[in-house]
Amino acid sequence: MPTLQQYVTDIVSAAFSAAGFDTSYGAVVFSERPDLSQFQCNGALKAAKQYGQSPRSIAEAVSVQLQQNTEILSNVQVDGPGFLNISLTDTAIAAQLNQYAQSEIVPQDQNPQTVIVDFGGPNVAKPLHVGHLRSSIIGDSIQKLHRALGHTVYGDIHLGDWGTPMGILIAFIQREQPELIYFDPTITDGYPAESPVSMADLERLYPAGSTLLKEDAEFQRAAQQATAELQAGRPGYRALWNHFITVSEVGLKDNFKSLGVEFDWWYGESHYHDRIDPLVEKLKSEGIAVESKGALIIPLPEQNGTEIPPLILLKSDGAFLYSTTDLACVDERVHDNHANQIIYVVDQRQHLHFTQVFSAARLAKLCPENVPLIHAGFGTINGSDGKPFKTRAGGVMRLRDLITMVTEKATERMVEAGMSQEYPEAEQKEIARKVGISALKFADLINNRTSNYIFDLDRFVSFEGKTGPYLVYTAVRIQSILRKLKVQPDTDFVMQAPTDVERGLMLTLSQLPDVVNATLEGLTPHTLAEYGFTLAQEFNRFYQQTSIIHEQDTQKQQGWLALSLFTLKQLTWITEILGMEIPERM
Ligand code: ARG
What are the beta bridge partners of residue 303? Predict the structure, then answer.
């Protein structure tokens, strides 16, 4: 089923051909001046060169062809230097849209792939903060979108569980409690199942340890030693580290659950450990990795005239780094998981890191050229001072507190609006949670991911404007209309030819498949979020000009219900991809 834009493109292409020009000039876009026409084609301007004719005369010739098609086209005009302005008859719009409403709202990809989305990326022993929020929200929408189109998707959290922070923790605990069994080198198994540290302990110990590291050279050496011994497999350290992981994962899983974000894989950096030695050996023997000042590096070619610093594989003390792990990880994802595409949803500030890893992976032939490695970076969430968002006390805002904050704000708003007040308390709470989360997610996704944005809770949770609650409320409003009229969601009503009241909504509804393509192409959830907002706006405009519930003319009422049903179907699909939940009622 072609989209409306494609449908018109086909008609215009045929007209170009009938007038003696190549069909490729027939592409149309939705007009930027909807007051003049619905679609626009600038093919005549492009064709002028090839045919040595003025764009205007080409456009005139095509227009003569198009004007014969009065059943489908209501208005064809040549404008300016040779633009073609084209509008459809209302019957044609309704016919196309009814057909679209009968088929899948977004067609499945004909070439399903295995896609790995690397996102979330929290670190063991550190609380989840707003920096991980963007990765989680954007990454989740990217994985959901791919899944909805029929791809096999693996979402991987890539937990930071293996570097110096782990050594710092071990060394710091050893300092505080040297008597613990984990530090006795003569013991190698039979460690207690119970963790000696809680999440709260870890959150205190890690910052304390990192502070000490900066002041105390001796402690720094101890932490480095502990990191190396942990990685080399010292049993007591491994056992203690296992507790860190388990304890952290419980907290993380709880946080991600309240955010409604799920991962298929909880692999940590440690997961790739066993691949590192053989990989390093291979790269050395192939001459891809070379020694430099005691370290082992991979020199990288320049890109578009810019020099790329070498990737450091091993430091001079033999320790490997974040990049080494990421390189081994690419290898596993390509060779063991058969990824056709890997998308990294990670802070924009790590762009150089990924440039290096990707370049090294290609150089070492760990990843074939036809498997795209994509860094879908994102900007920061800032406070009103323009600096990265902090709590009032100046600390890092934790995700858990943030969710509490948005839920409270949503409750406040609902009380103000007198919304849901007569419902049971448990339901009210659940609605507030859904509204709060939708506010948080939409506020993030509506921004181009590479831009920074300012955290403004009051604005995010408003029921008016470009917000999650506005979208959610629109869907709930449609549900309520359907409930009042006892219409089942799968009812087959037919949309009637639009008047000025319905036309805008119908033309908008026709665009979703194209919007989804654009979202996928740029990995830009904001494209879809923006469309969701326009759709909600168009629906509310339509709704305000009609009286669906009291309409006496059955055909008219059913036509409007068909439109409402289709709008709800799209809004439900979109909000699902964006990770928002729609309550039954509000
Ligand atoms: N743990 C890292 C951080 O907090 C993010 C991990 C991103 N993924 C990756 N494959 N490097 O910065």
Answer: 306
CA distance 182 to 192: 9
* Tokens 């999650």 belong to residue: 468
123 lines ligand 1 (CB under 6 A): yes
Give yes or no for a contact between 365 and 309, defined as CB atoms under 8 angstroms apart.
Answer: no
- Domains annotated for the chain, with CATH where assigned, are 4-88 (3.30.1360.70), 164-256 (no CATH)
CA of 247 to the centre of ligand 1 (A): 20
Residue written as token pair 């709260």: 200
| 313, 298 Cβ separation under 8 angstroms | yes
Number of Cβ within 10 Å of residue 249's Cβ equals 18
β pairing state of 295-298 and 290-292: antiparallel
27-76 per-position pLDDT tens digit:
999 999 999 999 999 999 999 999 999 999 999 999 999 999 999 999 99
> Within 10 Å of residue 43's Cβ, how many Cβ atoms?
27
Ligand 1 atom closest to the CA of 159, numbered from 1 = 1
Q: Is 131 in the pocket of ligand 1 (CB under 6 A)?
A: no
pLDDT in tens, 297-341: 999 999 999 999 999 999 988 889 999 999 999 999 999 999 999
